[in-house]
Amino acid sequence: GTDPRNSSPDQDQSSMLKVICNQRDRFRTRLRETEEELRRLKEKYEMLAVELEKTKADNVQLYGKIRYVQDYSHEKIVSRGPKKV
């Protein structure tokens, strides 16, 4: 009964159908997993994009503050004039 040469065409088709259905089910499962991973990665990308924009805005503000402090320090040095030794 297990010798493939003695199996009928109906049994061969049924066996082939089972193999194909199992493969289809594996592909469906893999597709669902891949789609879920893609969804998570898109969410992470969007979160990182928002964080990047906030960081850029913070950098602009910090640069402005640094320039202000540098200009203020420079004005104090200039207003005092050269130091006499």
Written overview of the protein:
With 85 residues, this protein is mostly helical. Helix content is 85%, strand content 0%. The longest helix is centred in the middle third of the chain and has 72 residues, at 9-80. It starts with 8 loop residues before the first helix and ends in a 5-residue tail after the last helix. The mean pLDDT is 89. Residues 6-76 form the CASP C-terminal domain.
Feature tags:
85 residues; CASP C-terminal domain-containing protein; 1 helix; CASP_C; rod-shaped; mainly alpha; coiled coil
Write the layout of secondary structure elements.
Elements lengths: L8 H72 L5
N-C termini distance: 111 Å
Order of helices and strands: H
Mean pLDDT: 89
Strand content: under 5%
| Radius of gyration from the alpha-carbon trace, in angstroms | 36 Å
* Helix vs. strand class: mainly alpha
Low-confidence stretches: none
Helical fraction equals over 70%
Protein name: CASP C-terminal domain-containing protein
InterPro entries: CASP_C (IPR012955)
Keywords: Coiled coil
Coiled coil: 17-58
Quick structural gist:
This protein has one helix at 9-80. By secondary structure, it is mostly helical.
